[in-house]
Write a structure and sequence with these properties.
With about 170 residues, the chain is mostly helical. The chain has six helices and no strands. Helix 2 crosses helix 6. It comes from Stylosanthes scabra.
Length: about 170
């Protein structure tokens, strides 16, 4: 089922991308596509929302620093959770956090527990039952859920800030 849904998703994205590319160029006997105009309220909201930003280098550097610290310390606290499991978690977590934040912004549902279960299954299976796979999976779930749930909490805060004209 996963590969079926993934295939349909990629086909849909390809079709949407292809149709978008075709409609950008003007064609004879058709008007040029005009960019959508934002209302005054939307322009004002966007201006206030984007006026105070954290530099990207600072955000990425902070994430890398926290990932390095937790990759070095958590395997000493939890012996079953190896350092390379942590690196994989920290490499995959931003993508899952984005998906959770996007979905939470649209629906107000946080699927952090679902992504935590994904971490339990993948890390637990990778570690194996003879090397403490259950504990490694649960520890990985805790790390993954903290990252992913923080992203959805921030999305709620950003959405509220955007709608109330707060930076």
């Amino acid at each position: 089922n996963f590969f079926k849904v993934l295939t349909y998703t990629f086909l849909g994205l390809y079709t949407q991308f292809r149709n978008k590319k075709e409609s950008v160029l003007p064609v004879a006997d058709q008007d040029s596509p005009l960019p959508p105009q934002q209302s005054y309220d939307d322009q004002r909201r966007t201006h206030f929302f984007l006026k105070d930003q954290i530099p990207t280098w600072f955000a990425v550097g902070g994430y890398v620093a926290i990932a390095a610290i937790s990759t070095a310390t958590l395997p000493h606290i939890f012996n079953q959770l190896k350092w390379y499991y942590m690196i994989v978690i920290y490499l995959i977590a931003p993508t899952l956090a984005f998906c959770n934040a996007y979905g939470n912004g649209l629906t107000d549902w946080s699927l952090a527990s679902t992504y935590g279960k994904l971490a339990i299954f993948t890390i637990g299976a990778w570690a194996g039952s003879s090397h403490g796979g259950v504990l490694a999976g649960l520890e990985a779930c805790g790390v993954m859920m903290n990252i992913v749930s923080t992203a959805s909490d921030l999305m709620q805060d950003f959405k509220t800030g955007y709608l109330t004209l707060a930076s």
